[in-house]
Amino acid sequence: MPRDRAYSCNKTATMHTRSLFALLFYVPLFVAAQPGALDPTFGESDLGFGYGDGGPNGAETAAIRSDGRIMVGGGFGRYDGILCNTIVCLDADGHPYSGFQNTTFMGNRIEDMVLLPDDRAVVCGSFTGRVERFLPNGTQDPTFDPGAGAGGGGAFTISEQADGKLIMGGSFQTFDGVPRMRIVRMLPDGALDPSFDPGTGADGTVLACAIQSDGRILIAGEFTQYNDAEANHIARLLPDGQLDPSFQMGTGFDQVVKGLVLQSDGRILACGSFSTYNGASHESVIRLEADGTRDASFDAGNLNGSVEAVASGPDDTIYITGGVTVVEGITSRNVFRLFADGAVDTDFNTGLGSDAAPTGLLLLPDGKLLVLGWFERFGPYARTSTVLLNTDGTVDPTFGDATGINGRVNAVAIQPDQ
Q1: I need a labelling partner for 192 at 20 to 30 A (CA). Which of 145, 214, 357, 378 fits?
Q2: Under 8 Å between Cβ of 328 and 344
Q3: DSSP secondary structure of 152-170
Q4: Residues 40-81: pLDDT tens digits?
Q5: What pTM, to 2 d.p., does this model score?
Q6: Phi and psi of 61, rounded to 5°?
Q7: Residue 394 DSSP label
Q8: Cα separation of 350 and 333, whole Å?
Q9: Which residues are 218's β-sheet partners?
Q10: C-alpha–C-alpha distance, residues 82 and 357, integer Å
Q11: Cα 250 to Cα 276, 277, 294, distances in angstroms
């Protein structure tokens, strides 16, 4: 989601650095009999997402509609052999929904999406104008007009404010011909909102954004300055686009932040490839108070790799995924569930896991977890790009017996039931 969601870290997504990962070959870490190992009954003849007529660029973002169907966007052209041109809607079992058909939009790649309360989907990415809106049936919305849209770079993250305005971040430098350095706000109809002025904006790519309950805007990514002020990989903006000086991030992060998630109590989860925050050691995942100070009650300890995406449940249970395979001495294959204090929940494990680092997570309303990425196997079985896990980490056999698409899934979002 908006990217105050389980992302991608979004996207997003970014969950949103869009560099391709080399496939990571693995040494088996668990035997199949252990909790969290693959269920061998899950689609023995199913090749999952990524075999058949799918496109080589795969999926980048997903969101759940209010009717329970799953929207997927990316760089693919077909799903299950059906022409879909970068966006598709799936039934809850993973098959394409015939009531959503995109026959006109021919973008290169969708990077992130946000679903509106009426299930219209606003997407951003690498295509002309960088932003588009779709009706629930898959046609482009003729009432959405961003003019020339974003130019000079891609768009990687998009979120909706409570008033229907849209925040979009990326590497772009203009919007509808007006300078907007990597961050912009649109009116609900897609037009530039002139009341949001970021000045010189971010000096590096914005990969994630989240809207706090008071309307202030969190952004994160590759940047180290915002409007010529120091802002190391995270910043909070006032509703007019100016830097919020009350956000107490200190010296910020030492490396890239790839995802942001707001928990139910307003605390902020951040993930990425960082090792410090405000000068103190914190590897790859951290929780902040709403004012930007570190939440001392959360400590995941030592991690051996970057965290590409983070998700949080209604009970503040936390899921992380990415290149990490060891958290505080506990070994798993790329996906961990943490208690609210950051300790590893050993009742959840994924057995042999994936053969390449996942890049996205989507926590479903029933507590199941969709794991996304550019993997081709999950354990000893062919499972390309997407696998659905039960609450204990075992595979759900009822989802995705389709040929699907191939490639990588990066960022995810969830839309609450309306």
Answers
A1: 214
A2: yes
A3: SS-EEEEEE-TTS-EEEEE
A4: 332 332 333 332 222 334 567 888 999 999 888 877 777 777
A5: 0.84
A6: -150, 150
A7: P
A8: 7
A9: 210, 236
A10: 28
A11: 11, 8, 10
